[in-house]
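Re: the 210-residue chain
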Amino acid sequence: MVTDNMDWGAFYRYRKEVARRYPSVYRIGIRKKLLDVVAEELEDGETLLDVGAFDRGLEERLKRVCPGIVYRSMDVDRTMPHDYHSLDEIEERFHTIVMAEVIEHLGFEEGIGMLERLHGLLRPGGRLIVTTPNIHHPNMWMRDAQHITPYRFDVLGGALLLSGFSLKAIYRLYNDQFLRRLVRLYLMAPLHRWLDVDFAGTILAVAVRR
């Protein structure tokens, strides 16, 4: 799934647009969990596609807060009971698509092709929620040898804009024990900025199909 005629000039313009909106990773707001953001975007009765769904664990957690959603999973792992094992099998359209910790396993142009394909699987105004390791975190990127393409927050935002989305929001995901969270959010923040490292391990983007 590779884009043969990628417009690199447009990509760099979009990337700069995102960087103006978020001048630094430390200017990006923090949310605790992917589930919190997904549940906030969903309404009961809507359809959701989970791309790279692994064990379908998101389904159970989501249905506790949105019991009326229609959940579908897609994953290349055929040992698990997924609804789809390839995007090419999918003909229905969704209100929301979640792709968590997947895009970094693809080459960059292949990742753009994936985003464009997901754009076509959304209903008009549908939302795509993407997460990827935060490369400002000391070890989140290096912990998996299968990671291929690092996505800084502005690169991810630029890729989404290039693929036909508008960018609703970018967040950093960080959840920890109360005292440790308090120390990192307030007492250690100046040191983190000075070292240009982040305690939040994940970047999350919410994009809307234009």
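The beta strands are 30-31, 47-51, 70-74, 94-100, 122-133, 165-173, 202-209.
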